[in-house]
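Follow-up to my post from last week.
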Amino acid sequence: MKAEDIENYLSQLGQELLKRGIEEPIHLLLVGGAYMLLLTTTPRNTDDIDIFWLEEEEGLQRALRPLQESVIAVAEANQIDPNWLNYMTQLLMYDLVIVPEGNLWKTFGPVHIYAPPQEYILALKIFAGRDKDIEDCKILLKQGEISSRQQAQLLLDRYILPDARQNNAETIARSLDILYGKQRQQPAINDGVEP
Amino acid sequence: MIPTVKTVQTIARAYQQICTGEEPWIALGNFRNAWYGYAKDDRLALVSDPITEPEPNTIHTRRWGAFCAASVEFLCDRYGFPCPEWVYHPRYVLTIPWWPEYASHLTTRVQLMRTTPAPFSQRHIFCGNRLYQNKYEMSAWAQEARARGMTNPGEIFRYARQKEISIHGG
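User reply:
Got it. Predicted complex:
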């Protein structure tokens, strides 16, 4: 999926929702590969558009079925994967991370797409820690202002909930080691060992 | 004596028991015994009646309502029965995903997401794929293996396990 495909599919999604009588805005936060493609200068494609819901539970309940139907209609019309609009990341992380409101990026009928700060995407990718996330981190680090491990740790503290940081400490440490080099062990104070 | 449908553990009955405080795995375990065991010749009757949600509908009862709907879709699909329409109602799709308590690590969740059968994952319940495996079938498949001339216990187990994977996916 290229940048123009993404906007084209989102536009069709808006039309499908209107056909189903959905006029109230549905607020979605753009994350993942689609964010990298559209909002950073990353020369890459993406398999799908990762989103987080910004809806309250009641709005989500109301919008979920028509949205799922509309996503399938767009997939069938364009012969693409029915999971082209993907909220799996949110299902995985909903109680592990903070979800920021973001800034409105574009609207496609009732579909309102918001963009989080770039540093938020960096925090999510350090947290997820897969090889492709690390590669995206390297790109984000070149484009952003986070230059030290300490700054990255502050980001994680801001966006990843404490229990999640603790339970996934190994993955986070591995990501940070790859991006910033291994952390040096602090010498213990007065450990009784002669230098 | 084969019990009548009035006394067997239908899914609607199991859900009602959950809503009135029964331990969910007991209520659903009894339903599972009916499905796989004493009422297996009357499976449609076990799932045709919709569940009735209580008022107020709490997180607990919403979750288990979705779980019951997913279970019915899963079992009907696996065993080739027409699925009752009530299970497809959007109220049985959880807006807040449901993970097992132990799934606090991201990689555990990714694994569960991969292995959970679609009727559950589409309702945002991520429970893995081992919930409806059952001893009744393992015993029947072991007998089937013996009837085919297998005598080695390891070979019999592998045969039964292969059958299990082909139906339950894991």
